[in-house]
Structures are given as C-alpha cells and as structure tokens.
Amino acid sequence: MDNSAQASAELILLFGGIMVVVLLAIYMYKNYIRDLQNEIQSEEVSRLNNKLQEISEIFT
User: Fold this and answer.
1) How far apart are CA 19 and CA 52, in angstroms?
2) pLDDT of 2-34, one tens digit each?
C-alpha cells in the first residue's frame, strides 16, 4: 500500500512539473506574440501596406 501511495505522489509531482513548464512556455509565447504585434503595427509595415493598396487600385 505504501508503494502505491509513493508512486501516486511521484506521478502528481511529475504532472505538476510538466504544468509549470507548459505555463512558462505559454507566458513566453504570449510575450513573443505581443512583440510581434508591435512590430507589425510599425510605420514601415504601414507604408508598405499603403503602397500595396495603391498598386492594387491600379490593377482593379
């Protein structure tokens, strides 16, 4: 009985460790996406988008 309790406790600790790693990865990914969003909204990208719209108007 004692061995099964130890195995259960180890399994719970293992899942807890995995959850911590997953949550850290999600947090880092969220920061990456936020930085990417700021980059996309930059002035250079806006100018490029305007130029592409001008070209699109010429061909349509």
Assistant:
1) 44
2) 678 888 899 999 999 999 999 999 998 888 888
What's the CA gap between 46 and 39, in Å, rounded? 10
Rounded Cα gap, residues 23 and 58, in angstroms: 48
Alpha carbons 31 and 25: distance in angstroms, whole number: 10
Q: Which residue shows structure tokens 């099964």?
A: 4
Show the tokens assigned to 33.
């996406």
pTM over 0.85? The answer is: no
Which stretch of DSSP H or E encloses residue 20? Answer: helix 2-40
